[in-house]
Amino acid sequence: MTFLNSSIRVEKDGVITTVIIDNPEVKNAIDRKSATSLANAFREFEQDRNARVAVLWGANGIFCSGANLKAIAMGNGNRIEKKGDGPMGPTRLVLSKPVIAAVAGYAVAGGLELALWCDLRIVEKNAVFGVFCRRFGVPLIDGGTVRLPRLIGLSNALDMILTGRPIIAEEAFRMGLANRVVDVDKSREEAEKLAREIASFPQTCLREDRFSVYEQFGLNLKDALANEFEHGLKTLASQEHLKGSQGFLDGKGKHGKFIN
């Protein structure tokens, strides 16, 4: 276990890295120092050759309530600069490896934006998403207006952004905001389980396919298909497919099975 500061720590279990927000006094709100620690934690994950998938989890039954408004009101607000890290920390990082959000309780305002930054969201039945900062004149400045409509569509995104209303787990799942809904107190366990499954796959192919998905935004169909092909060539150059094909001949993964 590594403590980056009193509210951010990192735990590693083999190829899985879990980054933990733990500041119950402010419902896991993120101040300037915590944002820096979060960003550094994910930079370290990116650089760790052994790490394959990360999980972002909020301790004490809450994911993250956003930026620390008390700190902002006292003149110690989060970093607000065009270049470098985002106000909430890692939201401008483009990683080569997947991150899964394990969401319990509130994931609101900047906390919602942290969850949106992740590739997938494993959500407990008591989870609540929302642009709660609507009430205070605090903007979505960590990718919320960009990632939210890409995930759930313009109409649903505008509903959340303009009204600030709470979105419970069931509705979040229907919208596509939540990928899985799990029992209370099970989000970290289930997210880490999913992370291990993803980590078990051939990693070059997985990462190149993931990059192609993200990079197709803003490209026309012809260019997006050409970009996909280039990523596919990188996978073929790694020869992962040859090993996988031989495994298939040996009886692995037949009939749609994902467990040998």
What report would you give on this structure?
By secondary structure, this protein is of the alpha/beta class. Helix content is 42%, strand content 17%. The chain is built from 10 helices and 10 strands. The strands form 2 sheets. The protein has a 7-stranded mixed beta sheet, sandwiched between helices. Helix 2 links the parallel strand 4 and strand 5. Helix 4 packs across helix 5 and helix 8 packs antiparallel against helix 9. The longest helix is centred in the last third of the chain and has 18 residues. The model has no long low-confidence stretch (mean pLDDT 92).
List keywords for this structure.
260 residues, alpha/beta, 7-stranded mixed β-sheet, 3-stranded mixed β-sheet, 10 helices
Detail the topology: elements first, then pairings.
Elements: E1 2-5, E2 8-13, E3 16-21, H1 32-47, E4 53-58, H2 69-73, E5 99-103, E6 106-108, H3 110-117, E7 120-124, E8 128-130, H4 144-152, H5 154-163, E9 167-168, H6 169-175, E10 180-182, H7 187-199, H8 203-215, H9 221-238, H10 240-249
Parallel strand pairs: 3-4, 4-5, 5-7, 6-8, 7-10
Antiparallel strand pairs: 1-2, 2-3, 8-9
Helix pairs in contact: 3-4, 4-5, 8-9
Structural class: alpha/beta
β-strand amount: 15-25%
Discrete helix count: 10
Order of helices and strands: EEEHEHEEHEEHHEHEHHHH
How far apart are the termini?
A: 32 Å
CA radius of gyration: 19 Å
Major sheet summary line: 7 strands, mixed
Mean pLDDT over the full residue set: 92
Helix % is 40-55%
Shape label: globular
Number of strands: 10
Poorly predicted runs: none
Order of strands in the sheet with most strands = 1-2-3-4-5-7-10
